[in-house]
Amino acid sequence: MPSSQFAQKERYRYLNGFGSYHESEAIEGALPVGANSPQKPPYGLYAEKLSGTAFTAPRHENQQTWMYRILPTCGHANFEPREHSTYNTNPENKPYEKIHHIPNQLRWDPFDMDETVDWVHSLHLVAGAGDPTMKTGLGMYIYAAGKDMDAHEAFYSADGDFLIVPQHGVLDIQTEFGHIFVRPNEICVIPRGVKYRVTLPEGPVRGYILELYQGHFTLPELGPIGSNGLANARDFQAPVAAFEEDTSSTWHILCKFAGHLFSAKQTHTPFDVVAWHGNYYPYKYDLGRFNTIGTISYDHPDPSIFTVLTAQSDHPGTAIADFVIFPPRWLVAEDTFRPPWYHRNTMSEFMGLIQGEYDAKTAGGFQPAGASLHNVMAGHGPDAATHKKASEADLKPAKVGAGSMAFMFESCLMVGVTDWGLRKCKKVQEDYNAESWEPLKPRFKRPEKKSE
After folding, report:
1. Do 21 and 278 contact (CB within 8 A), yes or no?
2. 216, 268, 300, 374: which is the annotated catalytic residue?
3. Which of 68, 217, 435, 450 sits 20 to 30 Å CA-CA off 17?
4. What range(s) does the Homogentisate 1,2-dioxygenase C-terminal domain occupy (predicted)?
5. 389 burial level (CB within 10 Å; 0-12, 13-18, 19+)
6. b/e string for 407-441 if b means 16 or more Cβ within 10 A?
7. What does the pLDDT look like over 182-214, one tens digit per residue?
8. Rounded to whole angstroms, how far apart are CA atoms 334 and 175?
C-alpha cells in the first residue's frame, strides 16, 4: 500500500482534499444555511471570517474561512512584548544578531534535542531571506522541544505559514479548526494567523520548519505528466471541527509578529469554533503517498520532479519556496550516472534528512536531524565515495532509499545564515568540503596520438 507504516496509531478523523472548499460542524445545525453572517447565527454563536488573502484576490487564489464560535477572537487584552530582548526570529533587522550571507557550502551535524522548552521556545531560525513585515521571503527553522505548551496557552504566527517536517517524535496539534496528529514522515501546514497548541504525547520532538512569509503553498503544475502524480490532492487531510466550552479560565495568546513574541490575556478559550466552512485551514500529508516520477530510459531528471508543494514568485516557474522530497524509488536508467549530477544552481537548497541515508551522500556526514545548505551558485553534488560507487555500479534495476526520506527547502532567494545557525548551535561541519569533494581525483586522459 502506498502509505507510511507508522509506529503510532492515528488519533483523529479528517476531511480529504488539497485546496478544497470544506465545511465541518461539531454540532449538527451549527452552520448557517445559505448565508455567512445571519443576524442570529445558530445556537447563539458568533460569525467570524478568517482571510488568508486580500478580499479582492482572484477567485482561483482567494483563501478564506467562516468560523462560528462561542466568542470572537478580538475579545482579549492588549498584546504586550514578551521576552523581547531575546526572542527574535526575524531574519533581517536583528539589532543584536547578524545575518551572514556567505557562498560556502554548509553542513550541520544532527541538532540537539532540548527537553527544557515547549514548542514556542524551541524555534531556532537557521537561515532565511526577506522580511515578514513586507510579506516577502521565508525562514528556515529547527525545532526541538521536550514540554507540552501550557494547558491555557495558544500560539500563532502573523508572519507566515508554517510547513512543519517532523524528524523525531509526534505532535498532537489542537487548532481552531480541530485536531491534527503529525508523525515523522508526515508534514503539516499551519497557515498564517491560525491559533494552535502543541502537546507531545510520546515525549521530546525534533524537526524542521519552513515559514513562508509570501503567499501560500500550492500543488505544482503537472504539465505533460498529466492529471495525476507526485502529491495527489485527495491525500491531503484537514481537521474536522472540535470545540471546547470555556469562558472563565485565563488564557495567554502568544503571537509571533515581525519575528518578535507578544502575549495577550483573555478569559475564554481560542478553541471554541463549533463549525466552519472555507478553503483556508491547516492540513497534513503522508509523504509515503507521494507518487514518484522518474526516468525509464536515461539521465537523472531535475529534482523538481520530486516537488510536493510550491509557492511561486511573481515569475511563473520560479519559486519563493519549493518543498521537495527524495523518497524510496527505483532507478532503471541505462548508461547513466544515477545519483544527482554535480551542479550549480540559481536557487538556494537547504536539505534535511528525516530518516535513513540519502543516496547522494553515503560517506556518513549527512545524518538524520542534520542539514546542509548550498546557496546560490555554490557547487555541490555526490560526495567522492558516492561518485566512485555510482561510476562503477552494475546498472541493473535497483531500489534506492529504502527506509529513507530526505527533503529540500528550495528558494530562488539568496539565503542568509543566522549567528545561531553558523556559530551558537555548534553543529557546523568544518570539514564538509574536505570530506565530500576535495578527495575527487582527475580522471581525464588525453586521447593517444595516432602514429605517423
Report:
1. yes
2. 300
3. 68
4. 289-443
5. middle
6. bbbbbbbebbbbebbbeebebbbeebeebbbeeee
7. 999 999 999 999 999 999 999 999 999 999 999
8. 49
- Which run of H or of E encompasses 47? strand 46-51
Q: Please tell me whether 358 is known to bind a ligand.
A: yes
HSE-up of 328 (CA within 13 Å, CB side)? 12
Active site residue 76: no
Distance CA(267)–CA(256), nearest Å, equals 21
343 is in an annotated binding site: yes
Beta-carbon contacts of 450 under 8 Å, excluding residues fewer than 6 positions away, are: none
Grid cell listed for 32: 448557517
Q: How many CA atoms lie within 13 A of 38 on its CB side?
A: 13
Per-residue DSSP letter, 423:
I
Determine whether the annotation assigns residue 80 to a binding site: no
| Residue 82, phi then psi, degrees to nearest 5 | -130, 125
452 is in an annotated binding site: no
Asked whether the beta carbons of 447 and 395 are under 8 A apart, the reply is: no
pLDDT in single tens digits along all 452 residues of the chain? 689 999 999 999 999 999 999 999 999 999 999 999 999 999 999 999 999 999 999 999 999 999 999 999 999 999 999 886 667 666 544 544 578 999 999 999 999 999 999 999 999 999 999 999 999 999 999 999 999 999 999 999 999 999 999 999 999 999 999 999 999 999 999 999 999 999 999 999 999 999 999 999 999 999 999 999 999 999 999 999 999 999 999 999 999 999 999 999 999 999 999 999 999 999 999 999 999 999 999 998 999 999 999 999 999 899 999 999 999 999 999 999 998 899 999 999 999 999 999 988 877 899 999 999 999 999 999 989 899 999 999 999 999 989 999 999 999 999 999 999 999 999 999 999 999 999 999 999 999 887 76
Residue 47: name the closest of 280, 276, 241 by CA: 276
Domains defined for the chain, CATH in brackets: 289-436 (2.60.120.10)
C-alpha cell at 420: 545561531
CA distances from 410 to 61, 303, 304, 346 (A): 22, 10, 10, 10
Residue at grid coordinates 491525500: 235
Joined together, the cell numbers standing for residue 189 give 501546514
With vertex at residue 109, the alpha carbon angle to CA 206 and CA 124, rounded to the nearest 5 degrees, is 45
